[in-house]
Fold this protein.
Amino acid sequence: MCGIVGLFLKDRELEPSIGALLSQMLGMMTDRGPDSAGFAVYGEAEAGRLKLTVRGQNLDSVAVPLAAALGQPVTAKARDTHLVLSLPEGQEGAARQWLAQARPDLSVIGVGRRIELYKEVGRPTDVSERFGLAAMSGTHAIGHTRMATESAVTTDGAHPFSTGLDQCLVHNGSLSNHRSVRRRLEREGIDFTTDNDSEVAAGYLSWKLRQGASLAEALKASLDDLDGFFTFVVGAETGFAVLRDPIACKPAVMAETDRYVAFGSEYRALTPLPGIETARIFEPEPAHVYAWERA
Amino acid sequence: MPSVDLKQIGRRALNGQLHALGPDTNQTLWRIENPEGQHALACGLNVPITVEIAGHVGYYCAGMNQQAVVVVDGNAGVGVAENMMSGKVHVKGDASQAAGATAHGGLLVIDGDASARCGISMKGVNIVVKGSIGPMSAFMAQSGALVVLGDAGEALGDSIYEARLYIRGQVRSLGSDCVEKELHDDQKEELRALLDAAGVDPTVRVEEFRVYGSGRKLYHFNVDHASDY
């Protein structure tokens, strides 16, 4: 069992509150996932720059030598065990190479123009607090509370998983053919860093997107190629999408108002949202892709 | 009338108070405020009382209900009135998956829509849904009646036994061994009584419904039907 939450804002006035709302939603899903928690927030993009979210210890000594190695300006913001590095676009490869050589103890867990991604072992409210989620601002965000079933309780196994630029995925369920899909994707050049089945789903979508599919097309194709139980919420630079397996094994509730679209594994998760009492509440149908995007 | 603020006392205390009531209690009308989607509210009741819940509820609300009337003034989560034995459960909003699952008796009324697997394995309950129902509803339904004023999703009544499914709108598809049948007079009577009991507008005519039930081909293993099992 796991808990998923997602929030896509239509009303810009809510953007400064997205972290506060998401942290309350995550807290409501503690019963579904007390092991670990994680979230991705899509904040402001900086023109010509890319954000690299890195996880590990001794994060003070990363930005300066990285900037020196790249010969480019690098800024960094540390939050507990995570560091968001801002570097010029086009420097991702060089930065990854430097990190792999100079700081192999660190893992890059997310890259994009807007995505920042945080995850840790611990109760969801504690995880939110450690990273200061409540103060974060953005246009959309997704989060996950984990009760591990398919792999160990480690930070590596926590969601969201990101395997492509500004892409991330959270998953409630379990995939039964993830080993064979993983082997196929590895041959296609998709890298995996954990043994987790959900990372395979994220890698699958990245592979499809790389081939030119839209997010909705990639999700639709996953219905043929991924076997098992799943509710996915997928974040991309401009929005998010939702898909449930063909028998809707895992729960999902959505709410829409003039101000936002919200996703929760259970209605409880949506109760902190403003105007939820009068929102249009519905359950996404099985095997049907729902997507919201901002132009 | 006892009025309980769930925020103040919590779910266990509420259910404890309801379970402590005797059959001749004078506290026959309860009002529950601030349910906020919590699970297992008003479960396992076995006294003739009315419990009104002011808002949305989570999973398994009014599960195993006997005798009591439970009214949800909002939406209900997964498994509302699961395994109900008698009494009545009325959801004024929508119900999530598996509404009335395995229920043996009583009446479940849903004013809005019910999602997937409504009435799965129902064993004698009567269910009236004023909106539409989701896919795989009445899967392995054994007895009782499911009345739907709107549409039914895919695979209605898959592997059904002897329940009656009265659908007024479109059926997206029928499941294995679920077939349309002729609407007999005794069924019209049953349907009228259920519509009235659920407070459906009397101008809704029983002739607007189609009835579906078992083709009775899956009762015993037959190798010619192996792919349907």
Q: What stands out?
A: The interface with chain A takes residues 36-38, 55-56, 58-59, 75, 77-78, 93-94, 96-97, 115-116, 134-136, 153 of chain B (CB under 8 Å). The helical segments of chain B are 6-19, 185-197.
